[in-house]
Every structure is written in C-alpha cells, then in structure tokens.
Design a protein that fits this description.
Elements: H1 11-18, H2 33-36, H3 41-53, E1 63-67, H4 69-80, E2 88-92, H5 106-109, H6 111-115, E3 121-122, E4 128-129, E5 154-159, H7 167-181, E6 187-192, E7 209-214, E8 219-224, H8 229-251
Parallel strand pairs: 1-2, 2-5, 5-6
Antiparallel strand pairs: 3-4, 7-8
Pfam families: BAAT_C
Domain BAAT/Acyl-CoA thioester hydrolase C-terminal: 41-251
Protein name: Peroxisomal succinyl-coenzyme A thioesterase
Length: 263
Amino acid sequence: MWGGGGGLVEYRAALLASHGFAAMALMYLFPDAQKAATIGFHYIENAFRLLQDYPLVASDKIALLGTSFGASVTLSLAVFSETVKPLCCVCISGSHVLTLKANQSIAESFKVMKEHVHKSRMDENNCIIWRDTLLPIPEDSDLKVDVGRITCPLLLVVGQDDTNWAAVESADDMTQMMERAGNSHLLTTLSYPGAGHLIEPPYGPHCRSCTFVLQPDQQRVVVLWGGLTKPHAVAQEDSWEKILGFLREHLCHSVKPHVQSRL
C-alpha cells in the first residue's frame, strides 16, 4: 500500500513478483471525495480475502507492506482487524499516530494531520515540512495504534532525515510500547542516518523534494521529503535486500513450489 499521494502504484509489487512473491498493489485513496468517504476496513479486508482465495497463493502466508500513510494502514489492520491476520508486516517511513479503526473511513483517519496542519513549516525554498504535525507523539494509547497488541513479526524502515513524517520518534515510541507489552522480540528496526522519507527500491534517483497532490481535494504543493543523496541511496539498497530477506524468512518456509509461480 502506497502513501498519501493515492492512486495505483505498482512498481514495488512488480519487483516483489520478480522475486517470486505473489503481490497485490492496492489502490485505497481516491480523488473522488464521495468515494473516499466510503473506503475503510471493509474495502481493504475484501482485498486481503481476494488474495487469500487466489489458487496460487498460500492463504496463511500473506504479509502486509505499507509506506508512509500505507504503513499506518498496515499497523492498524494488524492490530484492529478481526479478519486480516498477516504473517508479518513491513512498514516504511510510517507512524502509528495516524490510525484507521474499524468504524472509520480513510478520509477520517487523516483528521489528526488536518487538525495539526498549523504545525507545518516551510524551508528556505518554500517546500512544506510536515513532520511536526505528528509531534509530540501522544502518550494516550487511544490516540495511536496500540502496537503492543501486534502478534506477528514487524519490520520498520526509518530515515533519520525524514522531514515529512516523524518516523524516527514514532519508531522510538513503538519500540517502548512493544517493550512494555512484552512483544518487542517481534520488532526489527532499520534506521538510516541521512536517509529521507521516500525510501524506495534501489537504484532510482533520490527525490529530496517534489510536487505532491493532496487527496482528495487535488491541491498541489511542494513537499520536502529529506535525505542526502549518498546515504539515502545506501539506505535504499540495504533496506530492499533486508526487506526481501525478512519476507523470505517469514513467508517462504515450507511453501510448495507452485505457490511461488509467477502470476
């Protein structure tokens, strides 16, 4: 699941498929405000069941991978959904502060950022820095995803120069929550100095800032994602190999050969 830019973004799913994983890229953010107001747990749970029912997929060996807001959705599903039970989760540049609960729409879950948009600021080039909208991390567990309830392995990928989301502070708080709950053995965190928000698969260009279309009102802004070119490139290469290793470790044991057939 891609982030707040919305649309159907398939390249990461295609790359996963090239490594033998049956992968579904899910479009869950729509420019149509009426449609956006109806998309929530039910929609995503149906997509999960669709993948489970596919004859070449091992129904009990499914992972969730989300980036940015998609990571928030991933964490929410892993904790709050009664039907989505992933075998493991990967969250890239995400936060547990934005939550999606069973009775919420995706649009409603954005309210936290909208309520705190006054905390955003501009850099010297008039690029928007959003990370402060999620700070300080709330102490009240009802205001964030209770990751202490996660029961599957979780991989967090964090850029220490993320200027878009408070991913570092979120990862620190999630670590503390899981330690208190006694499930920190399920957590692996990859934290990269000098890496920004858009930690993509390797060998693509480093995008420090760019135009961004806000959903669902289609407003165009220029967002600062952060990162320095060389360390960001290192983070992309290293994290991709470790994501593949993490998925192989938790999904591929005892998998029949036909399950890995290319779709």
